[in-house]
Amino acid sequence: MSKITSIEAEVRAKAGKGAARATRRAGLVPGVVYGGKQEPTLIALDPRIVVKGLQTSGWRSRVYEIKVGGKTERALVRDVQLHPVKDSPVHIDFLRLAAGARVHVEVAVHFVGEEKSPGIKRGGVLNVVRHTVDVDVDGEHIPEYFTVDLSTLDINDNVRWDDVQGTAGATPISHEPNFVIASIAAPSGGVAEETEAAAS
Fold it and tell me: What backbone torsions phi and psi does residue 94 show, to the nearest 5 degrees?
């Protein structure tokens, strides 16, 4: 399950662009927590909290416990708006996680065993098709990441969704059945040419 990160936020009294600008002038990032068949909660966050979260891998599937206005809400980051020049966060949307509800979430793929892969030892190149996978999953059991073991892959081998570890309860949002996650491509020039050159 995804790690839960606790953060504190302030309640914002007013909505609208003017109120959001006032929040930013006060040195905070305006945001909203919505969904779960409840009224949206307007919040303001320390920008350092937002930046730190975005710089950590897997932030799209991380569950946040947001302490605001005397209560705690669990939520996922759904959207982050960045300043067009400074690239700093100017607004953040959180999707409230309702008990028992399923959500669509983007989960990162972690690759292990690369140093043991016969194909990579022979000069093959790891070709990653999907760094993340969009899945439908129970909001209370969101994976922190999926794991792909490369240790047995040779050149021209690939790993598909059915080979991925940690996918229990997660349904991929894809029209392609058992899609490719990654493969080991032959090195430039090909293995056959290298073998012939070594024999000559």
Answer: -115, 140
CATH top class, domain 4-98: mainly beta
Partners of 172 in the β-ladder: 135
Each residue of 49-73: pLDDT tens digit?
Answer: 999 988 888 888 999 999 998 899 9
- Asked if the domains at 4-98 and 103-194 fall in one CATH topology, the answer is no
31 SS3 class:
strand
How far apart (Å, rounded) are the C-alpha atoms in residues 105 and 78? 9
Q: Where are the alpha helices (DSSP H) in 66-176?
A: 118-121
103-194 placed in CATH 2.170.120.20: yes
Task: List the domain boundaries for the chain.
Answer: 4-98, 103-194
Q: What is the dihedral of CA 84, 87, 92, 94, to 10 degrees?
A: 120
- At residue 189 the predicted structure's pLDDT band, cuts being 50, 70 and 90, is low
Residue 99 is predicted with a pLDDT of: 84
